[in-house]
Amino acid sequence: MANRAKQRRLEANLTQSGLAARAQVSLGTLKQFERTGKSSLEFLIAIAFALGAEKEFEGLFPPKPHRSIEDVISKPVRIRGRRK
């Protein structure tokens, strides 16, 4: 993921400091991310927005496909998870 983000940065003709400023993250954190691939989710989202790649997150939790129309009709809409 870090390699793809770096590639997007280079395609956008941004320096590391330019991207860090645009994403409002520290330059050191960005350098570490590009070197190791480790980051927080918050950091990753900030970088994605700065690179115009926020749409890439839409595929993370796609809705589960229904097997039949009866599944759609008979299954109630859940608002909360079950308590344990």
Automatic annotation (TrEMBL):
InterPro entries according to UniProt: Cro/C1-type_HTH, Lambda_DNA-bd_dom_sf
Annotated HTH cro/C1-type domain residues: 6-60
Coiled coil: none
GO molecular function terms noted in the UniProt entry: DNA binding
This protein's name: Helix-turn-helix transcriptional regulator
Native organism taxonomy: Bacteria, Pseudomonadati, Pseudomonadota, Alphaproteobacteria, Hyphomicrobiales
